[in-house]
Amino acid sequence: MIRGLHGLFYTSDPDGMRAFLRDKLRLPHTDVGEGWLIFDLPEADLGVHPVDESGRPPSGTHDVSFYCDDIQGTVSDLKSRGVTFDQDVQDHGYGFVTYFTMPGGVRVQLYEPKYQKRTAPAPRKAAKKAAAKTKNAAKKVAAKAKGAAKKVAAKAKSAAKKVSAKVAKRGETPKRRR
Predict the structure, then answer these.
(1) How many angstroms separate the CA atoms of 30 and 13, rounded?
(2) DSSP 85
(3) In contact, 82 and 24? CB cutoff 8 Å
(4) What fold is seen in the domain 14-113?
């Protein structure tokens, strides 16, 4: 079963682009060694578009876009990290769109979709649910441990009182251990 999409950017400046994706876009990544970073995107979707009446873009062309929930805020944030945009945000019908160019001359689209995804991404929901279960389990264990510690302390205090009472009955002075 397909569970994700792996995309590739071909660039004349792979080190620069990896640094750009890591440092400017702050994409989470896995370092697989020897300078190779695989960027772990939490979501993906795939659309199929027709060529226009003039045959543009050519059939067989593919495109990569990044999307966000707040394009104005995202553009502002990325500009503060040195990302330069090729144009102002425009309404393209399906969403609000702008473009920026990454190292090696790779131009990508950034957009805020107007459509709602049909379902929320399952891995994120599952991860939150698992984290909540783990947190609840940890709280239960901590509460049980605290209760057990109180019981042990109470028993020790009770035992100490009994010993003190016996010693007092005999008229002895309790001996301290060294």
Answers:
(1) 19
(2) B
(3) yes
(4) 2,3-Dihydroxybiphenyl 1,2-Dioxygenase; domain 1 (3.10.180)
pTM of the model: 0.60
Q: For residues 67 and 21, what is the distance between their CA atoms, to the nearest angstrom?
A: 14
Domain limits, the chain: 14-113, 120-178
d(Cα 67, Cα 56) in Å, to the nearest integer?
Answer: 23
- pLDDT tens string, the chain, 178 residues long: the values are 667 777 888 889 999 999 999 999 999 999 999 888 999 888 888 788 888 899 888 888 888 899 999 999 999 999 999 999 999 999 999 899 999 999 999 999 999 999 887 765 555 555 566 666 666 666 776 667 677 667 766 776 776 677 677 766 777 665 666 5
Report the amino acid identity of residue 96. Answer: F
The tokens describing 174, both together, are 């309790």
